[in-house]
Amino acid sequence: MTDPYENLANAIILMAVKDYRWALNKLEKRSNYEPAKMIIKEVERFFRSSWYRELTSVDGNFLIEKIRSEVSE
What is the pLDDT of residue 48? Predict the structure, then answer.
């Protein structure tokens, strides 16, 4: 049986990843789109936060770089 808290933590991180990908893709199409810039800043701050480190052992900076490289391909 899966831990419900672990499921919640995973869902929070997955939503942040989806938001980050969306914002990066949007910014590629419209380089001055402020809502996308704000989402990118918020999600990067989350990935570098102590709360994020409580949710997972995956390095936040590694995740940022991985997503950025996927989007730029």
Answer: 98
